[in-house]
Amino acid sequence: MASTADFRTGLILKIDGELLVITEFQHVKMGRGGAFVRTKLKNMKSGRVIERTFRSGEKVEDARVERRQMQYLYQEGDHLVFMDNETFDQVSIEEDMVTSREFLKEGENVDVLTHQDLPIDVEMPNFVTLIVTSTEPGIKGDTVSGATKRAVLETGGTVQVPLFIEEGELIRVDTRTGDYMERVK
After folding, report:
1. How many Å separate Cα 105 from the centre of its chain?
2. Exposed (0-12), middle (13-18) or buried (19+): which is 34, by Cβ within 10 Å?
3. Residue 44: which domain range?
4. Domains held by the chain: number
5. Tens of pLDDT, residues 107-148
Protein backbone atom coordinates (compact mmCIF):
# COMPACT_ATOMS: atom_id res chain seq x y z
CA MET A 1 0.00 0.00 0.00
CA ALA A 2 1.17 3.50 -0.82
CA SER A 3 0.29 6.64 1.10
CA THR A 4 -0.38 9.99 -0.58
CA ALA A 5 3.04 11.04 0.75
CA ASP A 6 4.57 8.41 -1.59
CA PHE A 7 2.93 9.87 -4.72
CA ARG A 8 5.33 10.79 -7.52
CA THR A 9 5.05 11.11 -11.27
CA GLY A 10 5.20 7.66 -12.88
CA LEU A 11 3.91 5.73 -9.84
CA ILE A 12 1.48 3.03 -10.95
CA LEU A 13 -1.60 2.47 -8.77
CA LYS A 14 -4.28 -0.21 -8.85
CA ILE A 15 -7.68 1.41 -8.37
CA ASP A 16 -10.96 -0.48 -8.98
CA GLY A 17 -9.04 -3.26 -10.76
CA GLU A 18 -7.49 -0.81 -13.27
CA LEU A 19 -3.82 0.12 -13.55
CA LEU A 20 -3.40 3.89 -13.47
CA VAL A 21 -0.15 5.88 -13.72
CA ILE A 22 0.23 9.26 -12.03
CA THR A 23 0.99 11.93 -14.65
CA GLU A 24 0.58 14.96 -12.35
CA PHE A 25 -0.03 15.50 -8.65
CA GLN A 26 -0.32 18.45 -6.29
CA HIS A 27 -0.48 18.59 -2.49
CA VAL A 28 -3.02 21.22 -1.37
CA LYS A 29 -3.48 22.58 2.16
CA MET A 30 -6.38 24.98 2.61
CA GLY A 31 -6.73 27.40 5.51
CA ARG A 32 -9.36 25.23 7.16
CA GLY A 33 -9.90 21.53 6.90
CA GLY A 34 -7.50 18.77 6.03
CA ALA A 35 -4.94 18.67 3.27
CA PHE A 36 -5.58 16.71 0.10
CA VAL A 37 -3.75 15.57 -3.04
CA ARG A 38 -5.14 16.43 -6.47
CA THR A 39 -3.92 13.99 -9.18
CA LYS A 40 -4.20 13.27 -12.88
CA LEU A 41 -4.16 9.55 -13.58
CA LYS A 42 -3.76 7.87 -16.97
CA ASN A 43 -5.35 4.46 -17.56
CA MET A 44 -2.59 2.19 -18.91
CA LYS A 45 -4.97 0.15 -21.10
CA SER A 46 -7.30 2.75 -22.57
CA GLY A 47 -5.04 5.81 -22.30
CA ARG A 48 -7.92 7.83 -20.81
CA VAL A 49 -6.88 10.53 -18.31
CA ILE A 50 -8.97 11.12 -15.19
CA GLU A 51 -8.65 13.54 -12.29
CA ARG A 52 -9.02 12.27 -8.75
CA THR A 53 -8.60 13.81 -5.31
CA PHE A 54 -7.27 11.87 -2.31
CA ARG A 55 -7.35 12.93 1.36
CA SER A 56 -3.90 13.45 2.81
CA GLY A 57 -2.56 10.22 4.32
CA GLU A 58 -5.05 8.03 2.41
CA LYS A 59 -3.74 4.58 1.51
CA VAL A 60 -3.94 3.32 -2.07
CA GLU A 61 -2.85 -0.02 -3.51
CA ASP A 62 0.27 0.36 -5.63
CA ALA A 63 0.88 -2.08 -8.47
CA ARG A 64 4.03 -4.18 -8.51
CA VAL A 65 5.43 -3.53 -11.97
CA GLU A 66 8.63 -5.06 -13.32
CA ARG A 67 10.74 -3.56 -16.08
CA ARG A 68 12.32 -6.16 -18.35
CA GLN A 69 14.73 -5.53 -21.20
CA MET A 70 13.52 -7.36 -24.32
CA GLN A 71 14.61 -7.56 -27.93
CA TYR A 72 12.15 -7.10 -30.81
CA LEU A 73 12.28 -10.15 -33.10
CA TYR A 74 9.51 -9.98 -35.72
CA GLN A 75 5.87 -9.16 -36.46
CA GLU A 76 3.24 -11.91 -36.63
CA GLY A 77 -0.10 -10.53 -37.84
CA ASP A 78 -1.12 -7.70 -35.51
CA HIS A 79 1.23 -8.92 -32.73
CA LEU A 80 4.91 -8.19 -32.20
CA VAL A 81 7.18 -10.91 -30.83
CA PHE A 82 9.81 -9.93 -28.23
CA MET A 83 12.48 -12.05 -26.53
CA ASP A 84 13.43 -11.59 -22.87
CA ASN A 85 17.19 -10.89 -22.78
CA GLU A 86 17.68 -12.85 -19.53
CA THR A 87 15.42 -15.92 -19.85
CA PHE A 88 15.18 -16.02 -23.68
CA ASP A 89 11.40 -16.52 -23.39
CA GLN A 90 9.39 -15.14 -26.30
CA VAL A 91 6.41 -12.89 -25.62
CA SER A 92 3.74 -11.81 -28.11
CA ILE A 93 2.47 -8.25 -27.58
CA GLU A 94 -0.33 -6.42 -29.41
CA GLU A 95 0.95 -3.85 -31.91
CA ASP A 96 -1.31 -1.14 -30.40
CA MET A 97 0.62 -1.33 -27.11
CA VAL A 98 3.84 -0.05 -28.75
CA THR A 99 4.05 3.72 -29.14
CA SER A 100 6.27 4.97 -31.98
CA ARG A 101 5.97 1.56 -33.68
CA GLU A 102 7.11 3.09 -36.99
CA PHE A 103 10.64 3.51 -35.55
CA LEU A 104 11.04 -0.05 -34.16
CA LYS A 105 13.43 -2.24 -36.13
CA GLU A 106 14.28 -5.89 -35.69
CA GLY A 107 16.95 -6.52 -33.07
CA GLU A 108 16.14 -3.29 -31.16
CA ASN A 109 16.12 -3.50 -27.35
CA VAL A 110 13.11 -2.00 -25.53
CA ASP A 111 11.83 -1.94 -21.94
CA VAL A 112 8.64 -3.95 -21.39
CA LEU A 113 6.64 -3.22 -18.24
CA THR A 114 4.93 -6.30 -16.81
CA HIS A 115 2.35 -6.73 -14.06
CA GLN A 116 1.77 -10.28 -12.80
CA ASP A 117 3.84 -11.55 -15.77
CA LEU A 118 1.52 -9.85 -18.29
CA PRO A 119 2.95 -7.07 -20.49
CA ILE A 120 1.19 -3.75 -19.89
CA ASP A 121 3.42 -1.24 -21.72
CA VAL A 122 6.39 -1.07 -24.09
CA GLU A 123 8.85 1.81 -23.70
CA MET A 124 10.93 2.63 -26.75
CA PRO A 125 14.42 4.12 -26.39
CA ASN A 126 14.31 7.93 -26.61
CA PHE A 127 16.52 7.99 -29.71
CA VAL A 128 17.04 5.43 -32.49
CA THR A 129 19.48 5.39 -35.40
CA LEU A 130 17.90 4.40 -38.72
CA ILE A 131 18.85 4.31 -42.42
CA VAL A 132 17.06 6.56 -44.92
CA THR A 133 15.78 4.24 -47.67
CA SER A 134 14.20 6.82 -49.96
CA THR A 135 13.97 10.57 -50.23
CA GLU A 136 13.74 13.14 -52.98
CA PRO A 137 16.95 14.94 -53.93
CA GLY A 138 17.40 18.39 -52.42
CA ILE A 139 17.23 21.20 -54.97
CA LYS A 140 20.09 23.70 -54.81
CA GLY A 141 18.87 27.17 -53.90
CA ASP A 142 15.71 25.79 -52.29
CA THR A 143 16.90 26.72 -48.79
CA VAL A 144 14.94 29.74 -47.64
CA SER A 145 15.19 28.87 -43.95
CA GLY A 146 14.98 25.43 -42.43
CA ALA A 147 13.60 23.76 -45.56
CA THR A 148 12.74 20.08 -45.09
CA LYS A 149 11.70 17.11 -47.18
CA ARG A 150 10.02 13.77 -46.45
CA ALA A 151 12.22 10.71 -45.93
CA VAL A 152 11.19 7.05 -45.64
CA LEU A 153 13.18 5.03 -43.10
CA GLU A 154 14.21 1.36 -43.08
CA THR A 155 11.33 0.56 -40.71
CA GLY A 156 8.74 2.10 -43.06
CA GLY A 157 8.23 5.20 -40.91
CA THR A 158 8.51 8.68 -42.34
CA VAL A 159 10.17 11.77 -40.93
CA GLN A 160 10.87 15.31 -42.11
CA VAL A 161 14.63 15.84 -42.72
CA PRO A 162 16.81 18.74 -43.95
CA LEU A 163 17.49 18.97 -47.69
CA PHE A 164 21.12 17.76 -47.40
CA ILE A 165 20.08 14.25 -46.19
CA GLU A 166 20.47 11.62 -48.96
CA GLU A 167 19.39 7.99 -49.37
CA GLY A 168 21.52 5.47 -47.46
CA GLU A 169 22.53 7.89 -44.71
CA LEU A 170 22.12 7.13 -41.00
CA ILE A 171 20.02 9.58 -39.00
CA ARG A 172 19.01 9.81 -35.34
CA VAL A 173 15.27 10.16 -34.64
CA ASP A 174 13.55 11.16 -31.38
CA THR A 175 10.89 8.45 -30.83
CA ARG A 176 8.88 10.63 -28.42
CA THR A 177 8.19 13.35 -30.99
CA GLY A 178 9.04 11.65 -34.30
CA ASP A 179 11.49 14.44 -35.18
CA TYR A 180 14.82 14.26 -37.00
CA MET A 181 17.68 15.02 -34.57
CA GLU A 182 20.99 14.68 -36.46
CA ARG A 183 22.97 12.86 -39.10
CA VAL A 184 25.08 9.99 -37.73
CA LYS A 185 28.51 9.30 -39.22
Report:
1. 15
2. exposed
3. 2-60
4. 3
5. 999 999 888 888 888 889 999 999 999 998 877 665 566 788
